[in-house]
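Sample intake sheet
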Amino acid sequence: MEWILPIAGIIAAIAFLILCIGIVIVLLSVKKNLDHVAKTLDGVEGQIQGITRESTDLLHKTNRLAEDVQDKSARLNTVVDAVQGIGGTVNNLNSHVDRVTTSITQNIANNKDQIAQVVQWSNVAMEVADKWKMRKERRNAYDFSNQVVVNQDKEVFNKDTANYNDVDEDRINAGLHNK
């Protein structure tokens, strides 16, 4: 039985050697994976730095945009206030126009007979003016060059003796005849 102890020592040494070889293999595999992880982390770190720079730039742009929006919003508020004031003014104007229109309508209704008379007299005046104008045009268009006109009182009217403004065309045409 003495021989069992050295065989057990040899078996233990072989087992320890197998265990060490297994540990070395595992550790080499772990080292390889850790190297790969380290390379990946280096790439991620570069990407994170890029993302950080872009995020910082984006944050600055966002802040500037927010300030610009606030400034424009403040300016827009003044425009809105002005438009609101204009709306109030327009409403005021509309109410005044309504009052004036109502007043005019009431005055027209109250004075419609007088207005009708004014319209009639203005129509008469326009007709008289038109007739006066037509009479003046006819008088100026009448040619006395070759005519001698004598009325019943034996007055002679012709181009040389007639003053166009004084000659009454109706008198000349009423019963006067050519020689």
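Comment: The two ends are 191 Å apart (CA to CA). The beta strands are 149-150, 156-157, 177-178.
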